[in-house]
Prior knowledge:
By secondary structure, the chain is mainly alpha-helical. The protein has helices at residues 10-41, 48-68, 72-86, 88-106. The longest helix is centred in the first third of the chain and has 32 residues, at 10-41.
Amino acid sequence: MATGESNAGVLPLLGSIAVQLIGGILVGLLVGWVAGKVSRRITLPSGNLYAIAAMAWAVTAYGTGAWIGVSGFSAVYIAAVIIGVGLQKLQNKFTEWWDTRRGYAETP
Length: 108
């Protein structure tokens, strides 16, 4: 009869959580590092494309994490932190893009 109780214990659960988080962090570090290297070497023709590139890196981090069986969420979070810290060029282009859009909205 099923009672909803498990005999597995807490330690295997904590081990699984640790593997998920540590694996996600490692994937995020790797994807963020690769994104930084690649993004510094290329110049996109429009500032709008930098926002799309950032989203593509986030999807890559999540997909890679999910594919190997670790936390895709923590991979995206860490990759975003690495990208945000390391890519001033990307931040400046996005700010430039945002300022032009805000100018459109404020025009009477």
